[in-house]
Amino acid sequence: MARISLRYLAYRLVVSYFVILGIMTLAFLLLRLMPGTFADALVSPDMPREAREAIVEQYGLNEPLWRQYLAFMVNYQTGQFGWSPTYGTEVWSLIERRLPRTLVLFGASFIFGYIIGPLVGMYLGWWRGTKRDKSVFAAGLVAYSMPAFWIAWLLIWLFNYELGWLPSSYMMSQYPDDPSLLAPFEQWTWWRAIVDVLHHIALPLFSIISVGWVGAMLVMRTQMNTVVDSDYVYLAKAKGLSERTVMIKHAARNALIPVATQAIVGVAFIIDGAVIIEYVFSWPGMGALIVDTVLRRDYPTAQAVFFILGVLIVVMRLLTDIAYTYLDPRISFEGGE
Amino acid sequence: MADHLLEINDLNVRYRMDGPDVHPVDGVSLTVDHGETFGLVGESGCGKTTLAKSIIQLLDSNGDVESGEIWFDGTLPAWTDERGEVRRDVVEDPQYPVREDGMTNLAELSLEQIRDVRWRNVALIPQSALNALNPVYKVGDQIVEAITRHEPGTDVEEARGRARDLLERVGIDRERADDYAHEFSGGMKQRAVIAMSMACSPDLLIADEPTTALDVIIQDRVLDEIKSLQNEFDVAMLIVSHDISVMAETCDRMGVMYGGKMMESGTTESIFERTANPYTLGLRNSFPTVEEDQEQLVSIPGTPPTLRDPNPGCRFVDRCPFAVEECRDSHPPMYDVDRALGEATDEVAHESACYRLDDLEQVQEDAAKEETWLQQTTH
Known about the structure:
By secondary structure, chain A is mainly alpha-helical. Chain A folds into two domains: about 130 residues, no CATH class; about 190 residues, Orthogonal Bundle (MetI-like fold). Chain A contains 13 helices and two strands. In chain A, helix 11 runs antiparallel to helix 13 and helix 12 runs antiparallel to helix 13. Helices cover about 30% and strands about 20% of the residues of chain B. Chain B has an eight-stranded mixed beta sheet with strand order 6-7-8-3-9-10-12-11, with helices on both faces. A four-stranded antiparallel beta sheet of chain B has the order 2-1-4-5, with helices on one face. Classes of the chains: A mainly alpha, B alpha/beta. Chains A and B meet through helix 10 and helix 11 of A and helix 3 and helix 4 of B.
């Protein structure tokens, strides 16, 4: 079944590696293109001159840019992300703690968005032109046109402020920024911890999904429209298969292939959305961290977060490509290029 | 066993459109006997494919059988006794669309019921069989799917074996059952679909333009394949084609359709020997044949009518070089050709819907001349 050769996989890994080098370079450059410098955040005018110079030298900021860049590239590739002056800790220890939280939110959004989207798209495409199709389609477009953070505000207003059902911020009732993700699990029973997380994740998750499902729905609906008229769907009907079997097994299965293509773009959008939504809901993940550190000119942390999110997208793209070959037998990556 | 396998009476199919309804099949009757091959021929848009689709209710969602009957010799498993005969109480109960001789009116069946008839009793090779295999499933599995759908008790391994046998029967290696459609050549795909159509040994096989997408050499091979399978499985066939030469080669009897109406029907032999309808004559002129020495192919001028707003007269009147005043008033009924030629027989073997049957010989003679048809273009 596997139609991916090791050789192709190796080729893809090498390409991904170069993409990651590119992301590193961007992370390095973008933050240096911002007005002001890293040093401004570290020193203050009333410091003695020697103290200022000592700090500048300690962070290597007196070196020419190209040497800083080289050192940066070498450090990142050896897994050294530096020291965060604002948090007073290793950057990696910050990321280590926050990445799983982001992955929980992002992963759940991605999974739900890409279950709901194609499923709704399948029904709409199959029953195209009906009233239900038109109204759900229009509702989807409206949701798609709204910024996720605005929907988030509406949700907070309704479910938190007006109804008081759901919390508006943090991941858990206690220990919102505890160093250990597992701390509450040790002190509470595990199911209480899970219920608490679910309680907190509901609003941010819903905000991301409310926009995130539409992209997949639109592609799926259009594809179903095409596939419904295909000859193999006609033959499947002629074989006497039930409507359900024809729709799911023969039509939807084929319409799903371009959805995988859309997912490659959708992954980036959902990560994107998750970053903003995290900030809105004070979700203690990577998104809140990147906004926080950029505003405070904490370059080492900001560029590391930027970099890790970039790597996440590269990894997801690689996975979607592999998923592709399982969805569509016509695609094979057996030969290396 | 009833007299016929399929008996279509005065069938009207309607498509609901934005404007007035369209009737692509307008009062057509035909019969197909057990094991016989019946051909439906006509230009695109004459209703022949719609007629074929309506037999197993495969019309597009805006189409339905408005009136008429589609009697079929074969009943749902639920309505038969252990010997396979139709149960008496089913025949007598008016709620079941079953006739005294055991035939079922397919047009009256619910969607649920017709699904049991599809493929098990009436299989179909679709118009573009080349794209009819689902690209994401193995070819063998698609045959297995048909078998397990209609024979629910079947062991999957046994069904796989049967699928392989069928593929081998049409000249495809057993191992290729595990391949996907894109790994097959065009001819192989066509043959795979033909093999699939035989999976449940149907009583009737509808072949919709079975050769259109193929080159001439493959066409011939595919027709041979279909014919030999037909003999082996003892299945009746309804071939739909725009190519009248395919009819000559394969069909026992045939019908010529135009503008939703049956123009001429009868044994293939009789229709070719004494073509009794100007439309059929024109159609023959426009196709090359091996036997006759045609200097030039002559096409029928004009295009088929739109069916949206049919004129009250003969459907072919606007393109017919032999039209007389009478033709403009009403569409002609089917006349017995043998009787018109003064050779009355007990059984009607050849019918034609034309008012000019009286001077048929003159019509046939003129139709053979190119200028007869050319004059029409200036008309």
